[in-house]
Every structure is written in structure tokens, then in C-alpha cells.
From TrEMBL:
Protein name: Adenine phosphoribosyltransferase
Segments forming domain Phosphoribosyltransferase: 51-159
PANTHER family given in the database record: HYPOXANTHINE/GUANINE PHOSPHORIBOSYLTRANSFERASE (PTHR43864), XANTHINE PHOSPHORIBOSYLTRANSFERASE (PTHR43864:SF1)
UniProt enzyme class: transferase
GO MF annotation list: adenine phosphoribosyltransferase activity
Enzyme Commission number(s) from the entry: 2.4.2.7
Keywords from the UniProt entry: Glycosyltransferase, Purine salvage, Transferase
Biological process terms in GO annotation: purine ribonucleoside salvage
SUPFAM superfamilies given in the database record: PRTase-like
The organism of origin for this protein: Catenuloplanes indicus
Stored InterPro entries: PRTase-like, PRTase_dom, Pur/Pyrimidine_PRTase
Length: 180
């Protein structure tokens, strides 16, 4: 990745204090989406880390994955499949679901993808903004496999996971959380 993009990502990122006895700072990624040069460079930078694996589709979870995933899909010249988090209005067609382990907020989310959008033989690149426990990415890998497709790895802007999780999920990232 170009050092320009690293520098821009670090400069446009904020840790915010929500106050009201909230116990920790929260990440504010809005500066990344507001920057034309970051928005322009992100897709090619993330796609470039996995181009050799020849993905045929990008899968990413709501809600921030719906920003980052299509940028990567455009750069790879492949399509995009959205993964929904359960608990809101049902999607009115057959879905493949997986329950995630507790994530970075302690939630056990159900993640679901429209089954017809992942095909046997697809090589699916999972894309997300940030990987901490890896729970959501792992659940997406299970869905991809259940649909007969192959997960080729996880491309993230920020990795905050252990080396074991990074190896298991084949996480490649532009930044480590310690840089922010
Ligand atoms: O590695 P994990 O512990 O699974 O955490 C990573 C996930 O958490 C965030 O989503 P979150 O639902 O918190 O926020 P968002 O809906 O704003 O994307 C992030 O976008 C990843 O999807
Ligand atoms: N957006 C995010 N996703 C996952 N883990 C985080 N830790 C801090 N911000 C995060």
C-alpha cells in the first residue's frame, strides 16, 4: 500500500469520547468516507492484497461493510453480495444464516446472505472495515462455505485481531489498530 494512504487514514481517523459514563472511546471512521482521495484509493488498496487469489465476488456485512465492500468489488471488477445482521425486518427470500461467536461488543449476531447470490465455484473475498475478534468474518466464511463457494480471505482496513485469528481467517489489512 502507498504510505500516502496510510498517512491519510491515520490523519482522518478519530477516537471519540461519547461521555455519559461510557467506558471506552469509540472509533470514528467518518473522516475516511468524507475524504475524496481516501475513498478513491481504498478499493484498489484492499483489492490489491488479494488480486492473486482471483476472487469472483465480494461479501461484506452491514453496515460499514456496505461502504467498503462495493469499493473493493469495483476495483476487482466483480460483484458484491450484502450480508445482513439478524433482528430487523426479514429478507423475503431464502437466506443462508450463521450465528457468530461473541463479537467486539459482546453480541452474538446472526449473519445472513441471500442464498442465490453465492454460487458453487465462487471465490469469495470477505471485506470489512475492522476485524477485532473475527467473529463476524468467521460467520461469513461459514455462510460462504455452506453455499458451496470458497472463502479466499478477509480484507480489512484495520486489524485488531490476534495473530491466530489473522492466520485462521487469512486477514490482510492496511493498518493495525495500534497505529490509530
Ligand atoms: O471482529 P469482530 O469482533 O466481529 O468485529 C468486527 C465487526 O464489528 C464492526 O461492525 P459493527 O456491527 O460493530 O458496526 P457497524 O454496523 O457500524 O459496521 C465491524 O464493521 C465488523 O463488521
Ligand atoms: N468499528 C469497529 N469494529 C470492530 N472493532 C472495533 N473496535 C473499535 N472500533 C471497532
Amino acid at each position: 500500500m502507498s504510505s500516502d494512504l496510510t498517512t491519510e487514514l491515520i490523519g482522518a481517523f478519530r477516537w471519540n469520547d461519547p461521555g455519559q459514563n461510557f467506558p471506552h472511546l469509540v472509533s470514528d471512521l467518518s473522516g475516511w468516507w468524507r475524504s475524496p482521495s481516501i475513498l478513491h484509493a481504498l478499493g484498489p488498496a484492499l483489492a490489491g492484497m488479494f488480486a492473486a487469489e482471483k476472487p469472483t465476488v465480494v461479501v461484506a456485512p452491514e453496515v460499514t461493510g456496505f461502504i467498503v465492500g462495493p469499493l473493493v468489488a469495483i476495483a476487482l471488477e466483480v460483484g458484491f453480495v450484502e450480508a445482513y445482521k439478524g433482528g430487523h425486518s426479514p429478507v423475503a427470500e431464502p437466506m443462508t444464516w450463521a450465528q457468530a461467536a461473541p463479537d467486539h461488543k459482546g453480541r452474538r449476531l446472526s449473519l445472513g446472505v441471500r442464498t442465490r447470490q453465492l454460487r458453487p465455484g465462487d471465490r469469495a473475498l470477505i471485506v470489512d472495515d475492522w476485524i477485532t475478534t473475527g467473529a463476524q468474518s468467521r460467520a461469513l466464511g461459514e455462510i460462504v462455505t455452506a453455499c458451496g463457494a470458497v472463502p479466499v480471505g478477509t480484507a480489512a482496513i484495520v486489524a485488531e485481531c490476534t495473530p491466530d485469528v489473522a492466520a485462521e481467517l487469512r486477514v490482510r489489512s492496511l493498518l493495525r489498530a495500534e497505529q490509530l
